[in-house]
Here is the input.
Amino acid sequence: MEVFLTAVVAVVSIILGAAASWRIATHFHNIQTQELQEAMDALMAELSEKDPSNEKLIQETYIEGAVAAWKKKGHAIDYLDSLTDVPREQKSKILIAAALRHKGKKPKANPYV
Here is the structure.
């Protein structure tokens, strides 16, 4: 009888130990998941904000593309027309900046004005 009780106590303690370990592990997992979610939310908030330096970098990339197109084709109109997400006012500024860099003067005609 004593051996049986010892075996039952051992089995119960193993089950309780496993349950406690599982509870502790899930608790730490939930904490890590929550911290990761908060970090991801913060990063997404930063990315969703308009960063002026990003806008300047994008503008500079567009100007460089327009200058490259100008050197290749003799004009940048086709390149600027391919930029479907850029408003006409910004295309006008890009064309003027590209002309100043390529020719050293403003373009004679600007179809985006």
